[in-house]
Amino acid sequence: MGILAKSSGFLSGIQEVQVATGGDWESCCHVTTQVLVLVPHSSLTDAKVAPDECFEINRNGGKYGYCRKENGTNIPCEPENVKCGRLYCTGGREFPTYGEKIVFGSCKASHYELIDDIGMVDPITKCGEGKVCFLGKCLDA
Question: Residue 104: how many CB atoms within 10 A of its CB?
Answer without folding.
Answer: 15
